Amino acid sequence: MKRHTDARVLMVALGLAPFIMVLGNSMFIPILPDMQRELLLTTVETGFILSAFSIPAALFIPLSGALSERFGRKKIGMIALLLILVGSFFATIAAISLPLQWQFPMIIVGRILQGIGAGGITPVAMILASELFIGQKRNEALGMLEVFNGLGKVISPIIGGILAMASWHFGFVIYFAVTLFSLAGILFFVKEQKREKAAFDWRSYVLDGVITFRYNWTWLLPIYMMGGVGMFLLFGFLFYLSYTIESVFPFSTVLKGGMIALPLAALMVASFWTSRTVKPAISSFQKRMLFGGFGMFFSAALLPATNDIVAFFCLLMVLAVGLGVFLPAASGALAASSRSNERSIVMSIYAMVRFLGVALGPVAFGVWMEDKLQSMFFAFFTVGVSTVVMMILWARIPFFKCEEAKML
Length: 408
Fold this sequence. Notes:
13 helices
């Protein structure tokens, strides 16, 4: 019984990492229009408030995977959280103390520091979950990360909406406080298994990554594509929805945050269901990946044909459900199909691609804000290509061809 409880506590402790990561973006979505007005920004500049966090995170993720190989997963995770604390403090001071002309650039600097920290913590949790659990427990642990990821996305817009009633400046204060709590969780509850110390060769690590992708691209590519495109579309449409709601409905910021949270809640519920039902078998992973991919494809196919905000919102919910089903199945497939010496690279690149989707979505949809039809057709094109690639190549995924499969 104690062992079962310890496993649950460990899953929750690891889940705090993606929770704190998504809080850094989703909390600011409903208050972006307020920030734009007070800081006198363009729509593209406002979108960069999200991207300044996500782009450095995406670029730093593979490096953090290498650093965790050299210095240990837990140590790198704690350093990453400390960077988020420093960035949050810097952005808070910039927002409340500096002259108007300096607030935006200095906030961006703070967001970049936060993003580097988020890039450090994101793959650490996924790698630890892959290493500390096996079989069905691994699927549950990876699914739990997606649940916490989704929970953070659900709660964050509501928190942002509440904060906007007072001042958007408090967003950085709340982020600092929650990150501090996450740091305590990693410090006290994550007990990393000791490994034999060995010399770390950066050149060999990079070369291993190139070789891994060269010989496994046929099954890595469709998973990476669908995961990245799904996050790109979800956060792009949420950015679009934030402005559309404000122009169509006279909602308070709290209600607006609640509406933005609904698709993210759908993603969380779908992720939880998938994590509880997916089995360590090839057919189980394939069915859920295909179901999720077609859900996203169906939603994107109908979006260009609708001009009604209610229909748009319903299709966005369908897209979120499809993505919620796909992500845990994809994470489980990657963990089960990669050898132990490849897993750090494979999971780090997967996290990087997803983060790039989060980063580029708001910027792209900010540019397309005046041309809704262009954004809708591009969404359909990207998810359509990704679905076709997945259908062609998914049979090449080498499920359970590693020695760990014998332990399942």
